């Protein structure tokens, strides 16, 4: 049965039009609705990867990392996040000095791992090739993932109490262009412990587990699938 991929249209379909007015336009998020990836083709080219993982990896690449919608991840994508961090938390904030300090190292680290043709751009194929090398059972993910996960947690944890609440998550994700309602919905999904209970605050250990799930869980019910916004596939 062919796999139908609902592209990023979901984020535009759920919210009423009045909620759409923000700086995302300026970041080119509107371009993200274009169907530039043929998911069938990607699946065909990477038969050794679970199609659900491929869909998640493509989605994280396109929505989360490729901030300027250039179809590659490059330094300006990282720089745009730094700029948004400044807009959200202020030019004098602890957050901006932390983001400035960390982002360049994270970018260089990603290049070292993934940029196999050394053009300072990470293409979707390079991204998939990096991720598919990971032995999920043996947990052989590169340190880079844990560094990025820790970076996000520390950036988001403004009150520095070692847990993230929905307001902190929402502010943090807005540095990546995500909308408030979208963040609230995602938080509800990934903070779920069982049918009746959600965590109000996410400790670092839980965050790390969710981050790993977001990238590598093949379980469609894993809460971490929604860490970078609700997925619909
Ligand atoms: Ca880009
Ligand atoms: Ca490259």
Automatic annotation (TrEMBL):
Domain of life of the organism encoding this protein: Eukaryota
Keyword Calcium: yes
Organism: Acrobeloides nanus
The protein's name: EF-hand domain-containing protein
Keyword Calcium: yes
InterPro entries: EF-hand-dom_pair (IPR011992), EF_Hand_1_Ca_BS (IPR018247), EF_hand_dom (IPR002048)
Family matches, as PROSITE patterns: EF_HAND_1, EF_HAND_2
Keywords: Calcium
Positions of the EF-hand domain: 102-137, 144-179
Gene Ontology terms, MF aspect: calcium ion binding
């Amino acid at each position: 049965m062919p796999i139908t991929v609902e592209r990023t249209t979901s984020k535009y379909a759920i919210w009423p039009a009045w909620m759409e007015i923000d700086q995302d336009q300026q970041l080119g998020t509107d371009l993200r609705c274009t169907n530039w990836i043929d998911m069938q083709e990607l699946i065909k080219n990477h038969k050794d990867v679970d199609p659900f993982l491929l869909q998640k990896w493509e989605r994280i690449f396109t929505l989360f990392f490729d901030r300027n919608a250039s179809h590659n991840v490059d330094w300006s994508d990282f720089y745009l996040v730094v700029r948004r961090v400044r807009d959200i938390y202020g030019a004098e904030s602890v957050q901006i000095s932390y983001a400035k300090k960390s982002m360049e190292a994270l970018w260089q680290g990603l290049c070292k791992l993934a940029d196999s043709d050394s053009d300072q751009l990470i293409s979707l194929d390079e991204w998939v090739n990096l991720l598919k090398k990971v032995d999920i059972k043996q947990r052989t993910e590169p340190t880079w993932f844990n560094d990025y996960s820790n970076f996000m947690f520390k950036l988001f944890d403004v009150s520095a109490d070692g847990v993230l609440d929905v307001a902190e998550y929402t502010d943090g994700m807005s540095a990546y262009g995500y909308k408030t309602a979208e963040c609230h919905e995602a938080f509800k999904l990934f903070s779920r412990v069982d049918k009746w209970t959600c965590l109000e605050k996410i400790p670092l250990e839980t965050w790390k587990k969710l981050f790993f799930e977001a990238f590598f869980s093949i379980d469609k019910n894993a809460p971490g699938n929604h860490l970078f916004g609700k997925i619909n596939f």
